[in-house]
Every structure is written in structure tokens, then in C-alpha cells.
Design brief:
The chain contains ten helices and nine strands. By secondary structure, the protein is α+β, with helices and mostly antiparallel strands. It folds into three domains: 115 residues, Butyryl-Coa Dehydrogenase, subunit A, domain 1 (Orthogonal Bundle), CATH 1.10.540; 99 residues, Butyryl-CoA Dehydrogenase, subunit A, domain 2, CATH 2.40.110.10; 146 residues, Up-down Bundle (Butyryl-CoA Dehydrogenase, subunit A, domain 3), CATH 1.20.140. It binds 3-thiaglutaryl-CoA (TGC) and flavin-adenine dinucleotide (FAD).
């Protein structure tokens, strides 16, 4: 697959970035060009997660970039995290998913709600990729409404007995640990670290996906699993705890979507300059210029949105509704750009010679997971009016 990527910066947004941000972007971009672009199409076609990238993702600091160095993270700011997600998703949403889940949905809850012992036990190994994690919130009958979950546990002395199931779980088929959200006997939600090998715990893979094919997705099944009480996250209970993790991942996705959009725009622009029809490059035709101009406009708006959100997050001032607005807008922007860019390439757009069709299919998951497009609209509606319409 071709990779002659250059990113658009129409409003000189680079001026808003520090030298460290630019270095992180450059090194992550080079890694994607060297290690992801050459192999990703093949793995997507055979519906396999390229597991050998785990070690390299850890080496570039993609696991827990904003987790303190004390626990193996890189201690970077939120804009650095966003830039990494942008660059990795430029390669493939599934690879970014692995970095998002490990960082925001596994390391973050252990860092934020875990005991000192849990932090020391798990975080350094998660940062190096020695162990991988997954996040179990969604259930077969409770997707957009996780508060209705039925996965539950009962007290059993120094253990709990966990029952239930989770569905659509990124990385579950190979994860060493799962941060699972389950209700206690008082119907209060808690985070529990379930470890591979515990009796009654299985993680069957979900097959036949047309989207995120280079990412491994599966179930989590708990059949009377005895989990030591020391594996319960003590710092926070209630639905607010997993929703805080989602805020962090959704923020990263707002940047990731820009990476995909930039890749599609760049591919469409280069193709339109080279492809000649009716005696001229198609780039000289007004209809194609309209598509390119609108793509650049939307990318520029999204870049400013995520940068400002990153500043708010750095100051711990970003609200959930602000994060919903950015996730919703930027993923929608990227999916529309992918569809338009595919048209610019004509028939070639449907082939694996170019990244666009794979991006477009991946985005069908990205617009659904971490809160659907509709759910984020309802979160905004609630914020604006004070009326919940869920
Ligand atoms: P609601 O009554 O509004 O809230 C329940 C409690 O939570 C608090 N809260 C939050 N706390 C922290 N951060 C947030 N963002 C919060 N939003 C709400 C709230 O204050 C309340 O606290 P308390 O103390 O009063 O109990 O809850 P609800 O049941 O009405 O649901 C709200 C809704 C619909 C917004 C929420 O359930 C939702 O976001 N649904 C979407 C589900 C979702 O996004 N699932 C994602 C699963 S993980 C995933 O997709 C990973 S893909 C990863 C990858 O591969 O990249
Ligand atoms: P539903 O909730 O059944 O929604 C179906 C439709 O109804 C949607 O269009 C939705 O917007 C709409 N809808 C729902 N409620 C309302 C309402 N109140 N008003 C109007 N419309 C409404 N989950 C995890 O926990 N961990 C993971 O790692 C994970 N990874 C995933 C990876 C992939 C590839 C995919 C596809 C999903 C993943 N998910 C994961 C699950 C994901 O978060 C859910 O699919 C998502 O939250 C939506 O839930 P659902 O699929 O059950 O759809």
C-alpha cells in the first residue's frame, strides 16, 4: 500500500504545538509509515490483529502516554496523547483501538481507581505490553444503556463469585486481564480485574466483521468465576467510574478521527492531481475541487476543536458534553470525508491499493463504539436543555 503521507495544516495550527508535541508526532508518524502501512492491508484482508505490533506500540510510548512515569507511563500531557492517537489511527483505527483500550480503558481505571498494590502490580507491565488488557462494559442486551447491566457478583468470603457476559470487547480474545464492570448484591457497579486462567472465565472471538478487521473483538463470559476481593478497584463505584474512562478514550478518538480524515484527504488530493480524464487532471474539475475544499475545511475545524479540548483537558476543565461534541463531530467528519475521498478515486477507491475503503469501513465501528452518534447527540441535548431524552 502507498504511504506518501503529508498532513494538511491550513491554519498554521502547528504554531499552537510545542517542540515536544511535534517530535512525538514525527516519531509516531515515522513508526506508522514503517511498521503499520506496509502490512495493515494484508492483516485487514485476513481479519487478523498484527500481534507483533504490541511490543512496538509499547516502545513508541503508546500505552499510557499520560500515566505518570512512576507507574511505567510517559508522563506526557493530553495533547501528546491526542497527537499519538491521530497518527496511529492515520494507519488504522484498529491499531489505535488497541492503544486507546490499553491506555484509557485499562491503565486509566487502574491508575485512577486502583489500590497502590494494583497500580504496582499491573501498570508497569501494561505499559511495556508484557500484559494486555481489555474493558468489559457492553453486554448483549445493554449497549447504549450500560446502567442496565446484569453481570453481577456475590460475596464469598475473601473472594467474589462473578456471573454474566460482555459482548463486543476489543482485544478480549488475547487479553491477559479484563477490567470488568459488574453489579454487587446492592446493584452498585464496581470495576473488577479478571485475570486469564481464572476458572469459569472464557473469551470467545467474534468473527465475520466487515469493520475493524485488523482488530480482535470478542466476548467475556463469566461462569461462577471466583475472583479475589483484592482485584476489585476500591477508588470509585457507580456508573460514573466507567463513564470517566470513556471520557478519556472518547477524547483520544476525536484526535484519531482527524488522522483518518487527513489520510483520506491526502490520498484523494494526490490521486486527483495524477488522474487524467477528458484531457485534464480531475483536480482541475470543479466537482472534485468542491470535495477537496470541503474536506480541508472540515479537517481544519476538527483540528482546532481537538487542540482546544486538549488544552481544557490539560487544565482538568473538559466536560463530558464537550468531549461528546468533539467525538461526535470528528468521527462524522471523517466518515463523510472517507466516503467523498473514495469517490474521487473512482474504481481504484474500492481496492486495497489505497487505505480509504478500509478507513471507511473501520469508521462504521468508530461511529458506534464509545457512545453512538445518536447517544452523543442526546448527551449534548441533555446538557443544553436539562432534559434527558435517552
Ligand atoms: P446517568 O444517570 O446520566 O449517569 C449515571 C452516573 O454517572 C455520572 N456520569 C458521569 N460521570 C463521569 N463521567 C461522565 N461522562 C458521566 N456521565 C454521567 C452521573 O453523574 C451519574 O452519577 P451518580 O453519582 O448520580 O450516579 O446515566 P444514564 O444511565 O442515564 O446513561 C447516560 C449515558 C447514556 C450517557 C451513558 O450510559 C452512555 O454514555 N452510554 C453509551 C455507552 C458507551 O459509550 N459504551 C462504550 C463501551 S466501551 C467501548 O465502546 C470501547 S471501544 C474501544 C475501542 O476499541 O477504541
Ligand atoms: P444499541 O445500544 O442497541 O443501539 C442501537 C441503535 O439504537 C443505535 O443507533 C443507537 O444510537 C440507538 N439508540 C440507543 N438508545 C437510544 C435512545 N435512547 N434514543 C435514540 N436512539 C437510541 N464495548 C465495550 O464495553 N468494550 C469494548 O472494548 C468495545 N469494543 C467494541 C468494538 C467494536 C468493533 C464494536 C462494534 C463495539 C465495541 N463495544 C465495546 C461496544 C460498543 O460500545 C457498543 O456497540 C455501543 O455502545 C452501542 O451499543 P449496541 O451495539 O448495543 O447498540
Amino acid at each position: 500500500m502507498h504511504d506518501n503521507f503529508t498532513s494538511p495544516d491550513f491554519y498554521q495550527i502547528d504554531d499552537l504545538l510545542s517542540e515536544e508535541h511535534k517530535l512525538i508526532r514525527e516519531s509516531t508518524r515515522q513508526w506508522v509509515s514503517k511498521s503499520v502501512s506496509p502490512i495493515i492491508e494484508e492483516y485487514a484482508q485476513k481479519a487478523e490483529f498484527p500481534k507483533h505490533l504490541i511490543k512496538e506500540l509499547a516502545e513508541i510510548g503508546a500505552f499510557g502516554p499520560y500515566i505518570p512515569e512512576k507507574y511505567g507511563g510517559a508522563g506526557l500531557d493530553q495533547i501528546s496523547y491526542g497527537i499519538m492517537m491521530q497518527e496511529i489511527e492515520r494507519g488504522d483505527s484498529g491499531i489505535r483501538s488497541t492503544a486507546s483500550v490499553q491506555s484509557s480503558l485499562v491503565m486509566y481505571p487502574i491508575y485512577k481507581f486502583g489500590s497502590e498494590d494494583q497500580k504496582e502490580r499491573f501498570l508497569p507491565k501494561l505499559a511495556t505490553g508484557e500484559i494486555m488488557g481489555c474493558f468489559g462494559l457492553t453486554e448483549p442486551d445493554h449497549g447504549s444503556n450500560p446502567g442496565g447491566m446484569i453481570t453481577n457478583f456475590k460475596d464469598d468470603g475473601d473472594h467474589i463469585i462473578l456471573n454474566g457476559s460482555k459482548m463486543w470487547i476489543s482485544n478480549s480474545p488475547f487479553a491477559d486481564i479484563a477490567v470488568v464492570w459488574a453489579k454487587d448484591e446492592n446493584k452498585r457497579i464496581h470495576g473488577v480485574i479478571v485475570e486469564r486462567g481464572m476458572k469459569g472465565f472464557s473469551t470467545p472471538e467474534t468473527h465475520n466483521k466487515w469493520s475493524l478487521r485488523a482488530s480482535s473483538t470478542g466476548e467475556l463470559i463469566f461462569d461462577n468465576v471466583r475472583v479475589p476481593k483484592e482485584n476489585i478497584l476500591p477508588g470509585k463505584s457507580g456508573l460514573g467510574a466507567p463513564l470517566m474512562c470513556l471520557d478519556s478514550a472518547r477524547y483520544g478518538i476525536s484526535w484519531g478521527a482527524i488522522g483518518v480524515a487527513m489520510d483520506c484527504y491526502n490520498t484523494a488530493l494526490n490521486y486527483s492531481l495524477e488522474r487524467v480524464q477528458f484531457g485534464k487532471p480531475i483536480a482541475a474539475k470543479q466537482l472534485q475541487q468542491k470535495k477537496l475544499a470541503e474536506m480541508l475545511t472540515e479537517i481544519t475545524k476538527a483540528q482546532l476543536l481537538s487542540w482546544k479540548l486538549g488544552k481544557l483537558k490539560n487544565d482538568d476543565k473538559a466536560s463530558s458534553a464537550q468531549i461528546s461534541l468533539a467525538k461526535r463531530n470528528n468521527v462524522d467528519m471523517a466518515i463523510k470525508i472517507a466516503r467523498d475521498a473514495r469517490q474521487v478515486l473512482g474504481g481504484m477507491g474500492i481496492t486495497g491499493e489505497y487505505s480509504i475503503m478500509r478507513h471507511m469501513m473501520n469508521l462504521e465501528s468508530v461511529i458506534t463504539y464509545e457512545g453512538t452518534h445518536d447517544i452523543h447527540l442526546l448527551i449534548l441535548g441533555n446538557e443544553i436543555t436539562g432534559h434527558s431524552a435517552f
